[in-house]
Design goal:
By secondary structure, the chain is mainly alpha-helical. It is built from five helices and three strands; from the N terminus they run αβββαααα. α4 crosses α5.
Length: about 130
């Protein structure tokens, strides 16, 4: 699925609305730092935050910034999975982790992230 403005606009981001002392309403998208607006009514605040969200997302896409997923979607991923590898690779990973003074988990996570970035860049240029 192409992750364009339409994709992100339809995600279930957390909208937080707070009444202000002067009678207006402050509204923000919890997961999108700096994405906020204000309205005279609750309805207007919701309308304004949709405009602000579209602007925030458009700018992030244009500049290639990472766009956080809604909190509700992030909870779907535990951050854990099991990978079976050959014994020789397991041994080499443990030795490398010890040599570098890090845990096997940290080494594996770093190597996976590093190679994922390389893979994505290679895919973009293809």
């Amino acid at each position: 699925m192409k992750k364009d403005i339409k994709y992100y606009m339809n995600l279930p981001y957390t909208v937080e609305i707070t009444p202000c002392e002067e009678g207006s309403y402050f509204v923000q998208i919890k997961e999108l730092e700096g994405c906020f607006s204000e309205g005279d009514t609750v309805e207007e605040a919701y309308s304004m935050i949709e405009e602000a969200k579209e602007g925030w997302l458009s700018a992030a896409l244009e500049h290639g910034f990472e766009i956080p997923l809604p909190e509700s979607m992030e909870k779907e991923y535990s951050g854990k999975f099991v990978v079976r590898v050959p014994k020789s690779l397991h041994k080499k990973l443990i030795q490398t982790a010890k040599k570098e003074g890090v845990s096997l988990n940290l080494l594996a996570s770093s190597l996976l992230a590093e190679n994922l970035v390389k893979h994505e860049k290679k895919k973009e240029t293809a």
